Amino acid sequence: MTQLPNFSIKNSNSSPANTAEDPQVAPPKPKPKPPQQHPWLIVGLGNPGKKYNGTRHNVGFEMLDAIAEAEGIPINTVNFKALFGKGFIGNVPVMLAKPQTFMNASGESVGALVSYYKIPLKQVLVIFDDLDLPFAKLRLLPKGGHGGHNGMRSIIDRLKGSRDFPRLRIGIGRPPGKMDTANFVLRPFNKQEREELEFTFQHGIEAVRILVLEGKQIEVILEGFDKSAAYAKSAKAMEQLG
User: Polar residues compositional bias: what residue ranges (predicted)?
Assistant: First the structure.
């Protein structure tokens, strides 16, 4: 048997593999990092201590507690003189705060939180009681003054006079007859008012979700227990913040 010669077939078009990196080929550019997503700071105003629990002046605390419960966010730490919690509404990071400085010094806590976490003012929502709104009505606005509310006055002062941050006002009505305003705001709600407030808090939670998730503001007016279906959520009421 004739032995065939050993040979290999070479491709004349091929060239030895070059393991060295071609100096003329630029390395791939790194992908740009997505812009940092700042959290929302949602603040409920009130006075600390059992003495003030359930009073009209503390309805901001109660609204914040309702938001925390609905979104599963524990408020169980203390940060910058506030009861504090971190979590999410949808996929948006939020921080919830209940200043413990007493109402008239709320700005000490809010100003420090805004400064430390570098939160844009358009993402600072303050929730507070309002004598000028009928009881159980809500109004969510993109900016405005303090309206004679000492907690809001303190916050605006600490934010160097800026009023360009959203606020959710909760109507507590005017004092009856000649009752002193200070006494009225420190009175607890009665049973019927409590029932109406449950509707108010549910509508407030929905309004805050719209604000945070869509970055839009919606003017919300709740007519009360008997007219809760009048909750306004029309497209015309929604405007870009700021």
Answer: 1-18
What is the pairing mode between strands 216-218 and 138-141?
Answer: unpaired
Domain 40-224, CATH number (from 3.40.50.1470, 3.40.50.1220, 3.40.1390.10, 3.40.50.300): 3.40.50.1470
57 is catalytic: yes
Residues 62 and 184: beta-carbon distance below 8 Å: no
Q: What amino acid occupies position 83?
A: L
Q: How far is CA 86 from the centre of its chain?
A: 11
CB 157 within 8 A of CB 163: no
Q: In 3D, which of 144, 140, 200, 148 has the Cα closest to residue 172?
A: 200
Domain ranges of the chain: 40-224
How many Cα atoms occupy the beta-carbon half-sphere of 22 within 13 Å?
6
Nearest to 94 by CA among 196, 240, 213: 213
User: Of these residues, 57, 146, 149, 203, which one is catalytic?
Assistant: 57
Low-confidence spans in the chain with pLDDT less than 70: 1-26, 31-36, 216-242
- pTM (whole model) above 0.85: no
